[in-house]
Amino acid sequence: MTKPLRWKRVLLKLSGEALMGSQSFGIDPMVVERIAKEIADAVALGCQVGVVVGGGNIFRGVAVAAKGGNRVTGDHMGMLATIMNSLTLADALRRHKVQARVLSAVAVPSICETFSQRVAERYMEDGDVIVFAGGTGNPFFTTDSGAALRAAEMRCDAFLKGTQVDGIYSEDPKINPDAERYDTLRFEDVIQRNLKVMDTTAIALARDNNIPVIVFRIHEPGALVAVLQESGRYTVVGS
Ligand SMILES: Nc1ncnc2c1ncn2[C@@H]1O[C@H](COP(=O)(O)OP(=O)(O)O)[C@@H](O)[C@H]1O
Ligand SMILES: O=c1ccn([C@@H]2O[C@H](COP(=O)(O)OP(=O)(O)O)[C@@H](O)[C@H]2O)c(=O)[nH]1
Q1: Residue 197: left if φ>0, alpha if ψ -120 to 50, beta else—which one?
Q2: Is the per-residue pLDDT at 202 higher than 90?
Q3: Per the annotation, where are the binding residues for ATP?
Q4: Which domains, from first to last, does the chain contain?
């Protein structure tokens, strides 16, 4: 018998770098294909899924600012990068027979629909996967914050952050391999101890809307369904 789902409606956040695979830039089609399959498997179990993809594999506004350029223009370019990633993921989902919609916070009507909460709600009720593109639509924000915002707007049961690491540690495990790993944490712990797995705005938004945050490694085959069925390895952040 199939295990029941712990969370029925989720927001899955993937960094742009998650789509890069072993490349140093851009999109690895094999990785996108594998992630699309993970999402298709979750949908087949009756999960309603919204996805936010970052843009860091293509462009980050801070990189422009660091070289003395205009941060706002850089952020606009970063948001456009998230649209490119979203289009790729939506195509891959369609290849897996999933009805996928790209809704962008930044209006590019000849390419994809513009985000509106009401339309998004209808699509989610229909079981379509929504790929939320363009972050929050504003500079000086991140796609983690955009994802927390969409999770709140769509009344998601959980915010699933699919990363390269299998949970939250006392320090970045890529820098300190001896860092301690946690199964559970409170929002306040993440904020006060400055555990930098996601930005504080995003964590605070999840806390204020009582949406648990789950951090897990997306590159393990079956990882998403395992999290949904409470059998995977992950850290849960709650109140
Ligand atoms: N305390 C921490 N616990 C876990 N990961 C952390 C921590 N501090 C920093 N990180 C880093 O944050 C990264 C996750 O954020 P992000 O860059 O958005 O995703 P990705 O892992 O897909 O690149 C991890 O890969 C990890 O290297
Ligand atoms: O609401 C948003 C979301 C993203 N961005 C820009 O888009 C880039 C890519 O997003 P992010 O860094 O969050 O991607 P990730 O790290 O998840 O790949 C950021 O660096 C910003 O320049 C932005 O300006 N506003």
Answers
A1: alpha
A2: yes
A3: 13-16, 56, 60, 163-164, 169, 172
A4: 9-238 (3.40.1160.10)
Amino acid at 73: T
Which atom of ligand 1 sits closest to the CA of residue 162?
Answer: 22
Q: Which ligand is nearest to the CA of 15?
A: 2
* Ligand 1 atom having least distance to the Cα of 175: 27
- Write out the binding residues: 13-16, 55-56, 60, 75, 136-143, 163-164, 169, 172
- Check: CB of residue 131 under 8 Å from CB of residue 111: no
Contacts of 220 (CB under 8 A, 6+ apart): 166, 226, 232
Angstrom distance (rounded) from CA 151 to CA 197: 18
Q: Report in angstroms the alpha-carbon separations of 131 from 36, 195, 236.
A: 11, 27, 23
Residues 6+ apart with CB under 8 A from 46: 5, 8
Which ipTM value was assigned to this complex?
A: 0.97
Q: Which of 17, 82, 40 is nearest to 224 (CA)?
A: 40
195 Cα nearest atom in ligand 1: 1
At 203-235, the pLDDT tens digits run 999 999 999 999 999 998 999 999 999 998 999
- Write the single-letter amino acid at 43: V
